[in-house]
Amino acid sequence: MTALPPQPLSPLDGRYQAAVSPLGEYLSEAGLNRARVEVEIEWLITLTNHSLFGSSPLTQDEKHQLRALYLTFGQAEIDWLAEREAVTRHDVKAVEYLVRDRLSALGLDRIAELTHFGCTSEDVNSLAYALTVKRAVNDVWLPAFRGVIQKLRDLSLEHADAAMLSRTHGQPATPTTMGKELGVFVWRLERVLAQVERSEYLGKFSGATGTWSAHLAAAPQVAWPNIARDFVESLDLTFNPLTTQIESHDWQVELYDRVRHAGGILHNLATDIWTYISLGYFAQIPVAGATGSSTMPHKINPIRFENAEANLELSGALLASLGSTLVTSRLQRDLTDSTTQRNIGVAFGHSLLALDNLTRGLGEISLSRDVLLADLDQNWEVLGEAIQTVVRAEVTAGRSTIKDPYALLKDLTRGRRVGAADLAEFVQGLEIGDEAKQRLLALTPATYTGLAEQLTRSKL
């Protein structure tokens, strides 16, 4: 058998690449290396700004030239680093050599020895990961997440008045509206959205074991913790002053848990929409040219929601693994976090793909209000709750002497289909006040939705 030409192993880099490619700008190896170069360059500028070790502040033009090294980072730098890392067997060291090489090309050899000054690799990595994850979340994941929420909000408000039968435990139950049920997901997702938006992205810059030992050996008079804090905060990150060799990754654990939580809610949404489609509540809008089944031409399968389920499960598993691994580091450092963090993009990739699935799926369904109403009309027994509650109120008010209203309705409705005429006859025979009786006689399953519409419109 002839060997295939090199192929992407992950479907995220093959079949689904178009849907997740924006994450590659940040959470790929190249994106990480670009951020590492950014950290190295900005640290050089910081050291010269403080005129340390006889250096002097760079001119604005020199700073512009240096920053161009990461602002224009591209294939030439990617190839250069790959060749150098093949020799160094150390990714961050290769980045340091790249910066030194470019300094020489710019005629800035005078500051070459300040490259990576006082740094352990994890100083650079902690900031590079914080920058790339923060940018990926803010620029790519959050807009897609907000897009799903907005799509849901629009559907919820559109269908705020669409009465439908509830199905607690899968059984007919007190009616609600489709808008209110979708609104529940909007409410849940917006809480998690707010938590993700408030996420902190921490970085450390304190040397081999978090003590600034080498820094003090070189310049004991310098307030290194203050310089490090200012440097980290200049990158719009939160400074972690007390660490081992690594930044402790707790912020990552918190973030990934929130994203996983969001995924769990979205998974619940996907399974509910799938079920509503199977009940006929939602019709799927045919897409021109699409095939639902290889043998049954009539079918439109709910593949968007099924694919979303699968991708959310994969993402959730990876995010949980990231959290459980990153929370621990043996003594002052072990390397388990290195390989683990290289899969951050995979975890967010499956999550982003699920968001794409849901956005598309929610745009390809149409509510079948006639099906909802027909279902309600087949289940008049759900009014048993309303009747027994009204009877209780009448007993309390002294307008009825009925004993155990709940048992009375249970005998009438439990496990039985009761029609409109049956209930009307039953209500007519109840010993209750006339106003209450007329109110019950006017009630239908389609109007027994309480505050569902008002809740939807007022809370969204």
From TrEMBL:
Keywords: Lyase, Purine biosynthesis. Its EC number is 4.3.2.2. Residues 329-449 form the Adenylosuccinate lyase PurB C-terminal domain. Pathway: Purine metabolism; IMP biosynthesis via de novo pathway; 5-amino-1-(5-phospho-D-ribosyl)imidazole-4-carboxamide from 5-amino-1-(5-phospho-D-ribosyl)imidazole-4-carboxylate: step 2/2; Purine metabolism; AMP biosynthesis via de novo pathway; AMP from IMP: step 2/2. Pfam families: ASL_C, Lyase_1. Residues 14-308 form the Fumarate lyase N-terminal domain. SUPFAM superfamilies: L-aspartase-like. Transmembrane segments: none annotated. PANTHER family: ADENYLOSUCCINATE LYASE (PTHR43411:SF1). Catalyzes two reactions in de novo purine nucleotide biosynthesis. Catalyzes the breakdown of 5-aminoimidazole- (N-succinylocarboxamide) ribotide (SAICAR or 2-[5-amino-1-(5-phospho-beta-D-ribosyl)imidazole-4-carboxamido]succinate) to 5-aminoimidazole-4-carboxamide ribotide (AICAR or 5-amino-1-(5-phospho-beta-D-ribosyl)imidazole-4-carboxamide) and fumarate, and of adenylosuccinate (ADS or N(6)-(1,2-dicarboxyethyl)-AMP) to adenosine monophosphate (AMP) and fumarate. This is Adenylosuccinate lyase. It comes from Microbacterium paludicola. The lineage of its organism: Bacteria, Bacillati, Actinomycetota, Actinomycetes, Micrococcales.
